[in-house]
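Ticket #249: bound-state structure for farnesyl diphosphate.
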Amino acid sequence: MSPAAAPDKAGRPAREDGSVPRHVAIIMDGNGRWAKKRGLPRVAGHRAGAEAVRRTLRAAVKNGVEVVTLYAFSSENWRRSEEEVSDLKGLLGYYLERELESLAKEGVRLKLIGDYSAFGPDLSKRLEKAMTKLQPSNRLTLVVALNYGSRAEIAQAAQKLAVKVGEGSLDPSAIDESLVAAELQTNDLPELDLLIRTSGEVRLSNFLLWQAAYAELMFTPTLWPDFGEAEFEAAIDQYASRERRFGGR
Ligand code: FPP
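RESOLUTION: The complex was predicted; output attached.
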């Protein structure tokens, strides 16, 4: 990768060629297969996955990425066993509490998308406490998608617009892409530049469908628990080497 130029106002390193994606999203896949290969329970794969989250965030901060959005729990993940759902919930609360100090020190802010209230009052309170504590940070925004589904998000945006039309405050002919985008939960984030999925699966699985319209897509065979700084930087390098044309040619 090219060396960093002077850091920006938030202390982020900047590449001279401006080739760093501002917003990277990751479908963290392969925890179960990683554990199975080692004869371990699935929860061991998720625990190792949480370590990969830590390494990835550090690499993102180091490389000057502004936003990392992680697909931690999809609205389809409720179909997993009760035990696995409870393990994932436990791990999430544990990870955030254990990492809170170092996330704050690294300047990481937390934002949640999806309906996390479905995880119950206990985890919801812990998540909210973490968001409050990390509120002043401005170096990297970590967006965690919890009980998230992209079609539901788009349907809710349509509902909100329909309410405004019903109230008479919005003319249907005024509804355009920017008004739809403004009703999505990602409305305060920069455009998604790069979407990575690990473990060799080549699907979006109902993740950021609207937001990924012009994103570069990368699929790597690496299982999520094996993902780290080297893989993250390789993805950024590949991103920098692709010429983005936004459909212009
Ligand atoms: C997919 O692997 C992974 C998940 C559904 C959960 C991801 C959660 C973590 C990494 C835990 C920590 C998260 C944060 C944000 C701290 P899989 O179980 O579908 O793997 P498989 O396809 O090999 O079975």
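RESOLUTION NOTES: The chain has a mean pLDDT of 93.
TICKET STATUS: resolved
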